[in-house]
């Protein structure tokens, strides 16, 4: 309602001014209105520029912080991977040593078993030879 009244008043003023041939008042009014609008636009532009500049600075700070956090996390991960690789290498070396030790021990046990077998076979051959020489067959339960 107020806007309509103002518009009507302005129209009436314009009509009155046009009728009275006072064009100077309209020009002064327009100039002042344009001056106010220019100041408002300049203020608006300055405030928005200030906000944008502050945002850019804040964004740069946030970006720097983000990069620092990413670098920190990456460094931590590399350190963990390095430690795991060292642990893996030690475990691999221990496993290879354990395998070599088991193979040596197995070889020793095989040699011992082979020697025992050879001794027992030699004893059987010796007893069999003795039995042949005497001409006596083995007893059903022979303990030697």
UniProtKB/TrEMBL annotation:
Bias type Low complexity, positions: 1-21
Stored Pfam families: Remorin_C
Start and end residues of each Remorin C-terminal domain: 34-139
Region annotated Disordered, chain positions: 1-24, 92-115
Matching InterPro entries: Remorin_C (IPR005516)
Bias type Basic and acidic residues, positions: 105-115
Domain of life: Eukaryota
Sequence similarity: Belongs to the remorin family.
Protein name listed in UniProt: Remorin C-terminal domain-containing protein
């Amino acid at each position: 309602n107020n806007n309509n009244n103002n518009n009507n008043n302005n129209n009436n003023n314009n009509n009155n001014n046009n009728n009275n041939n006072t064009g100077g008042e309209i020009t002064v009014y327009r100039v002042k209105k344009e001056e106010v609008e220019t100041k408002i636009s300049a203020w608006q532009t300055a405030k928005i520029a200030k906000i944008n500049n502050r945002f850019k600075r804040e964004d740069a700070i946030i970006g720097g912080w983000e990069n620092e956090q990413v670098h920190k996390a990456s460094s931590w991960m590399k350190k963990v991977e390095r430690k795991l690789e060292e642990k893996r290498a030690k475990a691999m070396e221990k496993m290879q040593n354990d395998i070599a030790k088991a193979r040596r021990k197995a070889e020793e046990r095989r040699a011992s078993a082979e020697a025992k077998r050879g001794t027992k076979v030699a004893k059987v051959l010796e007893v069999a030879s003795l039995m042949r020489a005497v001409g006596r067959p083995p007893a059903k339960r022979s303990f030697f």
